[in-house]
């Protein structure tokens, strides 16, 4: 038989998401991944990293922000290369361009079909995922955390919208977050496809040396020297976006690309008003809240799907 039996001991590629505040070492973490590393540098900071085994996708900055060019360059140059890790730093800058453009074009009535702008955004995310995972390498997706306010309350915002995070989970086997405690930093395993989560791997040696290997040890049941997260260990940080056991956890892998969805609840409300289903944003908000209470969706994708069905019911069209 010409086929090779699948190894029972080889660990899967590191398909990881890593998020944290600006300046906490997300980009430096790239140097601790298996080398050589190819950087897709949408943030324009690749020259700040110093590593002998770092490669850039292209010398043209625009290529790092075009999903189509990323796919073309990877397909042309990855086969036969020795690249072990592809790092996307950051996915926010890549997908955020599509989101911002769609919102501006819709607001200015430049799109005849306003739904199509969001379908295009979903397609870009799908294309990007398929392009970077097609070559069997490790993949590190990076995005940022920021301080924000919601209804007068302080919270921590992820710069990659929830809808896009849901889509990304089909290509991940772990979601990681940088945390700090008593002057040291570590990586919290928020979620893993294998199941184990809630562990912190501390950067005791500096420069994240050995941390990726210890994360694998924690996830796959090897002796990695990790410890469980205590209730107060990350109290200053946001609630993990995909905590184990959360009622919003399920369904991410089945998220369908190429369908209408939204950047945020605010965009969903604006779309409802634009469709002629509500006389005002206040009326849309009231209907949205009631629908959420009635449907009890498990995640953002389910909520937006229910909202689309609700808005598009014929009796909701105003003359």
UniProtKB/TrEMBL annotation:
Residues 221-252 are annotated as: Disordered. Pfam families: AAA_24. It comes from the Bacteria. InterPro entries: P-loop_NTPase. This is AAA family ATPase.
């Amino acid at each position: 038989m010409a086929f090779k039996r699948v190894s029972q001991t080889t660990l899967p590629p590191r398909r990881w998401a890593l998020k944290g505040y600006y300046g906490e070492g997300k980009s430096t973490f790239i140097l601790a991944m298996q080398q050589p590393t190819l950087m897709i540098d949408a943030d324009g900071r690749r020259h700040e990293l110093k590593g002998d085994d770092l490669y850039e996708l292209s010398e043209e900055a625009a290529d790092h922000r075009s999903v189509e060019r990323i796919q073309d360059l990877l397909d042309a140059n990855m086969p036969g290369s020795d690249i072990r890790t592809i790092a996307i730093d950051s996915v926010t800058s890549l997908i955020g361009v599509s989101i911002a453009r769609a919102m501006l074009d819709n607001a200015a009535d430049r799109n005849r079909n306003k739904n199509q702008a969001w379908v295009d955004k979903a397609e870009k995310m799908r294309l990007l995922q398929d392009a970077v995972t097609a070559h069997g390498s490790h993949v590190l997706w990076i995005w940022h955390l920021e301080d924000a306010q919601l209804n007068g309350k302080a919270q921590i915002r992820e710069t990659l919208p929830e809808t896009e995070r849901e889509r990304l989970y089909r290509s991940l086997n772990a979601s990681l977050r940088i945390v700090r405690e008593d002057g040291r930093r570590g990586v919290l395993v928020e979620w893993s496809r294998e199941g184990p989560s809630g562990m912190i791997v501390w950067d005791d040696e500096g420069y994240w040396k050995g941390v990726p290997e210890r994360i694998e040890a924690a996830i796959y049941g090897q002796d990695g020297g990790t410890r469980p997260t205590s209730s107060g260990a990350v109290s200053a940080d946001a609630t993990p976006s995909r905590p184990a056991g959360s009622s919003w956890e399920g369904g991410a892998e089945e998220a369908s690309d190429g369908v209408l969805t939204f950047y945020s609840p605010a965009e969903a409300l604006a779309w409802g008003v634009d469709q002629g289903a509500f006389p005002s944003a206040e009326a849309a908000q009231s209907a949205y809240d009631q629908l959420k209470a009635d449907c009890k969706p498990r995640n953002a994708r389910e909520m937006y799907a229910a909202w689309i069905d609700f808005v598009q019911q014929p009796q909701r069209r105003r003359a």
